[in-house]
Fold this protein.
Amino acid sequence: MSSCLQLSAMLASAFALSCAYVLPSPLPAPPASRAAAVRMEAGVPVATPMMPGQKTWMPKAEDRAMAAKKWYVVDAEGLRLGRMSSEIAKLLLGKHKPEFTPGADVGDCVVVINAEKCIVTGNKAKDKLYRRHSGRPGGMKTESYEELQRRIPERIVEKAIKGMLPHNSHGRELFRHLKVYKGSEHPHQAQAPEALQFGGLTSTPDSQVLDLTDPDALFCVEP
C-alpha cells in the first residue's frame, strides 16, 4: 500500500513538472516607463532635420541632363597642347558655371577639330614618349610625339585631356562628352556648337624656336 502511494506521488510530481515546462507562467507586466513606448506597428514619426537652415544647392536631374548642356567647338590649330587641354577639362567639369558641384555632371560638351595641328613647345615633339602595352610578354610599344601625331593625332589630345579629369567613374563619364577629330570637319552640326577661342599663352607661338636666318645676308653678297 505504501509503495502504491509513493508511485502515485512520484507520478503526480512528474506531471506537475511537465505542466510547468509546457505551460509557463505569463511574463510580468512591463514597468510604467516602458508601457508608454511606441510600438513598431504604430509607426515612428519623422525626425526633424538636423540642419533646418541648410541652404546648400545641389544639381537636380534636369541640371545634369544632356538637354541642359551646351556644345563648344575648339580649333586646335596653333594651340599649345597642355594649356588647351586644361581649358577644355574645365568645360567638361563645369567649372565655368556658378552651379558647379564636385562629382556632379554639370559640364558641357566639347568638339575639337584640327587635332593634327596642335603644337608643343621646346623639344617635346622629339622627347615626349607615349607607351602602350598589348598585355603579352614583350608587348611594350613606345613612340614619340611626332610619330603618334602622324599616325593618330586624335589620341594625343584625348590622352592629355583625360589625364586632367578625375580618375574614377565620374571622369570616365565626363570623357564621353569630348569629341576629337582630325581635320576641320565634324559630324555635330546638328548640335550647333559655339566656336570657342583661347587667348593668352594658350595661343602664343613657341618663343623657344630659334631663327637662324641672317638678316644681313642680302647686304653681304659679293657682286
